[in-house]
Design a protein that fits this description.
The protein is α/β, with parallel strands linked by helices. It has one domain (2-354): UDP-N-acetylmuramoyl-L-alanine:D-glutamate ligase. Helices cover 36% and strands 24% of the residues. It contains eleven helices and 15 strands. It has helices at residues 2-15, 61-70, 85-96, 138-151, 170-182, 209-216, 223-237, 276-289, 294-308, 319-328, 331-334; strands spanning 20-25, 27-40, 47-60, 74-78, 80-81, 105-106, 113-120, 123-130, 157-161, 186-190, 204-205, 241-245, 251-255, 261-263, 341-342.
Length: 363
């Protein structure tokens, strides 16, 4: 039985490359300055970092697109950048990774969002942010919707990635949901609490623990409160499923008329949690397009997140890494008839601070 389930997951992973996904959300440039520390500054009690190299990666919603393309699938990116060097770097990095940026909007009045991380001896020393979070203008909302309508027949799913930086607004959310439903496309959301009520009707929504608590009004502290919160979120969002990421406690999947399924984390070593939430929503959506059940999609996304947090910097999981890690997952994680354990049969529920917690609340 276990071998049969494992084979099915491998077959699903092979089909991920056939998916075509439109990602709409807040685009950022992740900049990394890599160096070493050998002394403390005489000017202040801070380390002096000797910079040795610098690198760039697509961040925010464009990291979701990056995760999709890393598995061989096709991603179309729609977001906002400034008329600046950082914006041009984002487009160049997307192009380098085979990601279409024809849907990118350029606004000379606002800078491209940048997050600069100073890394020394595999540790993040400090992060410097440059951004503008003004709301998307009406004419730009129309441009985003026009691009989505032009692409809708060429794609299998839409991902809305909301970092709360101004691109995702109620009108855009509602019209994207209507568009996806009209064309029978999957639409998934990585939400921000400001617009919880507007996400009603999506296929799947992926809040983290804090977002799930804010949306449901229920403090998640044990399996009973988690179950109540999840069921309430299903009613609130009128979604087919709600996937709550719980950090080191893994994930909890809620579907209509089904028991909650808990998926334990499979991360072996955690070096950097940056971008883990992007990986989950991207890979979960890919798996659904490939024909996975909700629990299978959550399990595959969970393994991919476990790979990513083992990398320093914003990273993505490749198909070979995904298959390799799947082979090493203990059978106990995949048993219980479907993929994971039913929460009603759990003996314990951990409520430690998250190591995979989506840090977007502070981004």
């Amino acid at each position: 039985m276990y071998t049969k389930k494992l084979k099915r997951l491998h077959n699903l992973i092979l089909r991920l490359k056939n998916a075509r996904i439109l990602v709409i959300g807040d685009v950022m440039l992740d900049r990394f300055i890599w160096g070493t520390v050998s002394r403390i500054s005489p000017e202040a009690p801070v380390p002096v970092v000797w910079a040795k190299s610098e690198s760039f990666m697509p961040g925010g919603a464009s990291n979701v697109a990056n995760n999709i393309c890393a598995l061989g699938a096709k991603a179309y990116m729609c977001g906002m950048i400034g008329d600046d060097e950082a914006g041009r770097t984002v487009v160049a990095e997307l192009s380098k990774n085979g990601i279409s940026s024809e849907g990118m909007l350029v606004d000379a009045s606002r800078p491209t969002i940048q997050k600069t991380r100073i890394i020394a001896h595999h540790q993040q020393v400090v992060r410097i942010d440059r951004e503008s979070d003004g709301l998307l203008k009406s004419k730009d909302i129309t441009r985003v919707l026009s691009y989505a309508k032009a692409k809708i027949k060429d794609i299998d799913a839409i991902i809305i990635e909301d970092y709360g930086k101004g691109l995702i607004v109620p009108r855009l959310i509602k019209e994207l949901i209507i568009l996806a439903k009209r064309h029978k496309k999957i639409i998934t959301v990585d939400p921000k609490k400001e617009y919880f009520k507007d996400y009603s009707g999506v296929t799947v929504i992926k809040p983290n623990r804090k977002e799930a608590e804010d949306a449901s009004g229920i403090k998640i502290k044990d399996k009973s409160s988690l179950n109540k919160a999840g069921k309430k979120l299903l009613r609130l969002f009128k979604a087919e499923a709600v996937l709550v990421t719980l950090g080191e406690d893994g994930m909890a999947l809620f579907e209509r008329k089904k028991d909650c399924v808990c998926i334990p984390t499979v991360a072996q070593e955690v070096y950097d949690v940056s971008g883990a939430g992007d990986t989950v929503i991207g890979i979960f959506t890919l798996a659904k397009v490939a024909g996975a059940k909700m629990s299978e999609a959550a399990h595959i996304a969970n393994i991919a997140a476990g790979v990513v947090v083992g990398k320093i910097g914003i990273g993505a999981c490749t198909a070979s890494e995904l298959k390799s890690h799947l082979n090493h997952v203990k059978s106990s994680v995949i048993r219980r008839g479907e993929i994971a354990s039913n929460i009603s049969k759990e003996k314990n529920y951990c409520s430690h601070d998250s190591i995979l917690k989506d840090r977007r609340k502070n981004d």
